[in-house]
Design brief:
Layout lengths: L11 E7 L7 E5 H4 L3 E4 L6 H16 L3 E5 L4 H4 L4 E3 L6 E2 L5 H10 L4 H12 L9 H9 L7 H13 L11 E2 L6 H8 L5 E4 L6 H22 L3 E5 L3 H4 L6 H9 L5 E7 L7 H6 L2 E4 L5 H10 L4 H4 L9 E5 L7 E5 L1
Parallel strand pairs: 3-10, 3-11, 4-8, 4-9, 5-8, 6-7, 9-10
Antiparallel strand pairs: 1-2, 1-13, 11-12, 12-13
The structure holds adenosine-5'-diphosphate (ADP) and magnesium ion (MG).
The site of adenosine-5'-diphosphate has 11 residues, from helix 2.
């Protein structure tokens, strides 16, 4: 039964094989679907990262699309035979660019209260801000910040405490304080003929890891909208950026807004019910591996129309099997990633 609507000459990659189809045929992911974002979900061990690595490999090889992977657990070296790696320590990120998003990212990650955010915002807006030069300079400025009222003191102290992790020796080479240039980005993207792995797994402190990874996604996408024709970004363990409880707003906005550009986000997450609704709403293609949780299944049921017989298979899918929903298909189908 032909379920594809697309002209098969359109650029695409093969994901694997469609199950229980006679004759057998391949499951395809079209380039146009990539740029409308992809969600890969399923319980731990269901095959998400394996699937993402196959997509990365084929986008790069077959379609020559630059691919960046934010490797949360440091597992892609093994998954991808063909890649380039980048050590975060050799690629320090600019903490403040003057954009309001920087403050928004810091506020989410360090869970700043409104007064703490207010103080930081005031400091960031100062004309002589650039002169602070280092994290220590920023921390000192917080310390001596004039106390406008009594609640200030407590807020200043806790803001100082929260941000002081940034000044730890072991993290000092992850961030540049203020340096308005993207020379390094140009170098990074000069020859992206292989998927680029950025392994953040060795950053121990969770806030610092989230901060580095979020700024990285943000800066890469910003750079790409201006300088690249196309790009795919794989965001592993997306609950760290897009959780309902503490979402990083600029990353949520990115899902909504970057459709105009040829930038495809591939969001990999185990528990969809714990993510902001933007993820379901703004990823056109869904690759759903085995899900055991009722809450997660309910989210899928609400968001993706499929026959009950298919839905009821999701808890029992084997590793590497998935329900696949994408624009080129009339209805979701069962596939095996190969
Ligand atoms: N399509 C597949 N074919 C063969 N092996 C697979 C497939 N998908 C996953 N695996 C294997 O199953 C294990 C778990 O997969 P992984 O992608 O790490 O799961 P997840 O990211 O969902 O936790 C890995 O050892 C992986 O190599
Ligand atoms: Mg994984």
């Amino acid at each position: 039964m032909p379920v594809e609507e697309f002209d098969t000459n359109e650029p695409h990659i093969i994901l694997g094989r469609v199950l229980s189809s006679i004759p057998e045929y391949s499951a395809k992911l079209y380039k146009s679907a990539l740029f409308r974002h992809i969600l890969i979900t399923g319980t731990t061990g269901s095959g998400k990262s394996y699937t993402a690595s196959k997509i990365a490999d084929r986008l790069s090889r077959d379609l020559k699309i630059p691919v960046v992977i934010i490797d949360w657990h440091g597992e892609y070296q093994k998954l991808l035979p063909y890649h380039t790696t980048l050590n975060p320590r050799e690629f320090p990120l600019q903490l403040f660019t003057g954009e309001p998003d920087d403050l928004s990212i810091l506020t989410s990650i360090f869970e700043l209260t409104p007064p703490q955010e207010y103080i930081l915002e005031k400091i960031l807006k100062r004309k002589d801000f650039v002169k602070l030069k280092t994290i220590d300079g920023l921390l000192e400025t917080i310390e001596i910040f004039p106390e406008e009222s009594t609640w200030f003191r407590e807020s200043k102290l806790s803001l100082h405490r929260k941000l002081s992790v940034l000044s730890r020796e072991e993290y000092s080479d992850l961030f540049k304080f203020y340096e308005p240039t993207n020379v390094t980005f140009n170098k990074l993207f000069l020859e992206l003929d292989k998927p680029l792995l950025i392994d953040v797994s060795k950053i121990i402190d969770l806030s610092i890891k989230k901060l580095y990874a979020s700024l990285l996604v943000k800066r890469i996408v910003n750079y790409a909208t201006k300088n690249l024709k196309q790009l795919a970004v794989i965001i592993e363990e997306a609950q760290n950026y897009l959780s309902k409880q503490n979402p990083i707003k600029p990353i949520c906005e990115m899902l909504r807004e970057i459709r105009k550009f040829n930038i495809g986000l591939i969001v990999v997450a185990q528990s969809i019910s714990q993510l902001v609704e933007d993820v379901m709403a703004n990823t056109n293609t869904k690759i759903i591996h085995a899900i055991k949780s009722k809450q997660d299944l309910e989210v899928i049921e609400k968001a993706v129309y499929m026959e009950h017989s298919l839905l009821s298979l999701i808890p029992y899918l084997e590793v590497g099997e998935a329900v696949y929903s994408t624009i080129s298909l009339k209805k979701p189908i069962l596939i095996r990633i190969e």
